[in-house]
Amino acid sequence: MGAIVAIVGRPNVGKSTFFNRLIQRREAIVDEVSGVTRDRHYGKSDWNGKEFSVIDTGGYVVGSEDVFEKEIDKQVELAIDEADAIIFMVDVESGVTGMDEEVAKLLRRVNKPVFLAVNKVDNAQRAADAVEFYSLGLGDYYTISSINGSGSGELLDALVQVLPETEEEEAELPRFAVVGRPNAGKSSFINALIGEERYIVTDIAGTTRDSIDTKYNRFGFEFNLVDTAGIRRKAKVKEDLEFYSVMRSVRAIEHCDICLLLLDATRGFDGQVQNIFWLAQRNNKGIVVLVNKWDLVEKETNSVRDYEKKIREQMEPFTDVPILFISVLNKQRIFKAIETAVEVYKNRSKKIVTRKLNDVMLPIIEQTPPPAYKGKFVKIKFCTQLPTPYPQFAFFCNLPQYVREPYKRFLENKLRENFDFTGVPITIFMRKK
Ligand code: GDP
Ligand code: GDP
User: Where does the chain bind GTP 2 (predicted)?
Assistant: First the structure.
């Protein structure tokens, strides 16, 4: 499971600048917490080949000092609960502030690695000024400039050393995670699935206290359920609930093969659901969308078709995903949901023999070759599926850099048409040959 790093600190010290540097060209997902705080951001990063997720806990508050104080408490609490390591950012321009001292006080009690990053050290003079941050009682600090990037290498070297190893999961049983917004019906769904205790085979403690894998044997399938329970217990107020549940989803998603993305039919495929969908896709996980509480929707002749069409529009461009309309309450299509998840799991682990792949794809490519680019013609010679845990394909050609996105999408669509990859993201690489 990927490690999580949280960036905390008062507003304007440069957290989001640093965050953006960390995630580089990757996109962040934004958790729009209404009114109270600035958006929180999640993204992926890697250093020395080690991948981790980064959260910028945000924290811009329009209100008064004490509102802000409460906010920063929450921010730190979230980081303490959810992250494997914390970057505490301060600003050399302003020096140590009361708020920094507050945060430091909270962090001194934390039993997790804390990295004090003194930001805006854009030059040597400022490096000398940073010494005052020893007074925070957090020991050594790292001087960085989020704007020009200096110093961040040392910080990241130290950071990735303390992050837990991502153990390669043995490919044994499908790992399903039930994810979605609060109230979508996740707990009800899991309860309906597990029903009676006797279906539980064993409990395997997850790598963190928050994630428990439980092995089930139901409907003739064996699978591990990556549990996202325990959210309600922790969250005290509504926006925290939302945040915790997204956080928990982040973890669960990284830890699974297939996401069962549950949504409330009366609320639809909204921005937050889209975020979770996006996250699952970017992590190359299989996805099954379950539109729950279908019992609450007034049905007309084309309800399912229209509803499904709308969801697929939200999913663009990755639309080759099963969508089921279920009612956990009435136990409708719960079995079908698991059956579909197992199919998606099979699609995700599918390996197409190279010869078969070329027999199918080369004639298609011959008929519709990549368009000439800057007057150059691209010749694709052969292709192969890479030996990765999820489908990735390499197409070998003379000028890989001239193959543009639309053509890759064309290849992906042809792969999907000819080999069933429903529910599974596909990656296509163009390689030089
Ligand atoms: P946040 O509120 O902590 O997320 O802070 P931001 O990332 O929004 O940055 C606040 C301001 O500090 C912006 O104007 C940034 O351009 C500036 N800033 C961020 N990092 C640096 C840095 O390394 N050096 C300097 N000089 N300014 C910086
Ligand atoms: P979670 O926050 O995603 O775990 O959601 P819960 O499982 O706690 O469900 C939230 C609420 O939705 C509860 O009151 C459930 O009884 C209700 N609920 C769950 N599934 C269904 C369903 O299929 N139909 C209806 N009408 N209500 C449901």
Answer: 180-187, 227-231, 292-295
pTM of the model: 0.64
Q: Is 17 in the pocket of ligand 1 (CB under 6 A)?
A: yes
Interface confidence, given as ipTM, is 0.61
Question: Which residue positions form the known binding site?
Answer: 9-16, 56-60, 119-122, 180-187, 227-231, 292-295
Residue listed under structure tokens 């690695």: 113
Measured by CA distance, the residue closest to atom 9 of ligand 1 is 14
For residue 400, CA distances in Å to 19, 361, 380 come to 31, 17, 9
**Ligand number with the minimum distance to the CA of 9:** 1
Tell me which DSSP letter residue 28 carries: P
| Nearest residue (CA) to ligand 1, atom 24 | 120
DSSP symbol at 112: S
Give the whole-angstrom CA distance, residue 207 versus residue 82.
Answer: 13
pLDDT tens column, 20-55: 888 875 555 554 443 334 556 777 888 888 888 888
Residues 176-234 have pLDDT tens digits of: 999 888 889 888 888 787 764 434 444 443 333 344 567 777 766 778 887 665 444 44
| Homologous superfamily of domain range 3-162 | P-loop containing nucleotide triphosphate hydrolases (3.40.50.300)
Same fold, 175-339 and 354-432: no
Distance 21 CA to ligand 1 centre (A): 12
354-432 CATH fold:
GMP Synthetase; Chain A, domain 3 (3.30.300)
Q: Which CATH architecture has domain 175-339?
A: 3-Layer(aba) Sandwich (3.40)
The minimum-distance atom of ligand 2 relative to the CA of 326 is 23
Q: How many CB atoms lie within 10 A of CB 127?
A: 16
What ranges do the domains of the chain cover? 3-162, 175-339, 354-432
